[in-house]
Amino acid sequence: MFTRTNGRKSETLEATFSYPESGKAVTARLESSGRTALITNQVEIKGTLAFDGPLEFDGTFEGEIISQGALTVGPEAVIKADIHAAKVVIRGKVHGNITATESIEVCDNAQLFGDVRTNKFIVAEAAMFRGRSDPIEGKTDSPDFSPNFRRLTKTK
Are strands 2-4 and 27-31 parallel, antiparallel or unpaired? Predict the structure, then answer.
């Protein structure tokens, strides 16, 4: 575990790493004090990533991501994981299911392959999305258009 203090609330990075031959799971925990934590495109992680606060991830990841904060998937990122977070913004590539309590945004040139559950789902025109989307608070009924269609057929 690494702890760094710079006169403000301490920041903690808790990590367990192993070499691929050992087969041990990798668990990392990031805590941020209001600032966005950044994982660059030179980092490759396999396992479970849990964090609080905002995180911008631009590396390669495989496993599961759990957070009560906001995850921004950078343009260089390649993620194969199920994601559970408050807010998710995708600028790179994600393959996996996402549950977000606030919103999911798929930006221009981003790719998302998987099912999403959220209250607010935004997909940019130049983005790629293949999957299914459901509201987080259960299925909503589609509006009843049958009175309109009956009225249209009677005017002939």
Answer: unpaired
Question: Average pLDDT over the chain, rounded to whole?
Answer: 79
Token pair of 31 as six digits: 């805590």
Place of tokens 């990075």: 13
DSSP-assigned states of every residue in the chain: -EEE-SSSS-EEEEEE---GGG----EEEEE-SSSPEEE-TT-EEEEEEEEES-EEE-SEEEEEEEESSEEEE-TT-EEEEEEEEEEEEESSEEES-EEEEEEEEE-TT-EEES-EEEEEEEE-TT-EEES-EE-TTSPPPPP--HHHHHHHHHT-
The pLDDT tens digits of the residues spanning 52-90 come to: 889 999 999 999 999 999 999 999 999 999 999 999 999
Output the pLDDT for position 9.
Answer: 44
**Torsion angle of the four alpha carbons 9, 101, 85, 90, in this order, in degrees rounded to the nearest 10:** -110
pLDDT, tens only, 6-22: 444 444 444 444 445 54
Phi first, then psi, for residue 100 (nearest 5°) are: -130, 125
Single-letter amino acid code for the residue at 73:
V
Count CB atoms within 10 A of the CB of residue 138: 6
Provide the pLDDT for residue 136. Answer: 80
